[in-house]
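Posting for a labmate who doesn't have an account.
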Amino acid sequence: MGTIARYNVPAPMSIHVAPLPLSPLALMREARVVFARSLGFAVAATLALVLGGVVRTLPGIVGLMLFTGLVIALERLLAGNHPHPRLGAANRITLARAGVACLIVSRALDPAPLGMMERWTLAALAGTALMLDGTDGWAARRQRLTSPFGARFDMEIDAFGIAVLAITVVRADIVPCWVLAIGAMRYLYLTAGRVFPVLRRQPPTCAFADRRRKAIAVIQSLALLCSLVPVTPPNWAVATCALALGLLVYSFAADISMLLFAKPLR
């Protein structure tokens, strides 16, 4: 897409179209193999859950369709935005985390009550995804495949995973529905950006702000994860999620203040 236009060279007597560069072709070949395998694993996992009676057919299909839509969107965005000739381990790890989140949401959407063992299983899956979250950035740096595309992909899957955990905690009847605000905050911010253009700008570069965002994002996941674990007392779960929500509101308020009072670039 757009590659031919990039290589148009005017010629007085003939039209010459340069061949596609090898890097995007190699990238897309690798990516399509990875995506096909990921979808195969997702179909197998969904069938196992449905046939095993863990989730009903419709919620299982919804979770599978969510993952399929994510893979399709990722393939369309990859060629024009990923600056490296390889997909890299980091993006594979992030894709695996997305698959885990879609697996969890298929159970969270099932109207059947969540039992104790299911809560342990979902907490274990979410904990595995959270541990993987600490490895994708390291893998990208080690392979020298860091990019704004990979960072954005990681951030969006983080937000999606937190939203899924918040829904699961509510479905388990652990914390009142206000905990959904933790998962919805990112998407409310993006919606507000359509109304207020200032919110669409990047906040000024600040090492402290970067550390603050990362730390509070981890706190959100840990608070929801601890609330999902059956041994956590309900009052502790409510207090932990309330603290996490307060920190999240503070973080977004700090970013908005930075945007409002930052000097515009000339």
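Reply:
Got it, the structure tokens are right above this. The chain has one domain: 18-259.
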